[in-house]
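Chapter summary example.
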Amino acid sequence: EVQLVESGGALVQAGGSLRLSCVTSGFSYDHYAVGWFRQAPGKEREGVACISSGHGDTFYADSVKGRFTISRDKAKNTVYLQMNRLKPEDTALYYCTTGGAWGRGTQVTVSA
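The structure predicted for these 112 residues follows.
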């Protein structure tokens, strides 16, 4: 069974940094990509970043490119989202996902 558990969300001031973690189980990074999505109140869920299976190529939404970095640690079964130079518009519930499975999310709130 695929499971994903996010953590690391917090209240932070604009310009600050956070690192989100997604601990995974039930699948291999060699065969499954993992993505981070976010959903702000009243808005649709949007893709933020993705790391491919195998070589681990990375992809980013234009809104976070240059500020966010997705990475993975196979030994720890964890995918990270390093978020720098945070903006109030980054405020959202952040989820990780793979193969149709979703975690419960972790809240990121950026104050102006």
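To summarize the output: The mean pLDDT is 97.
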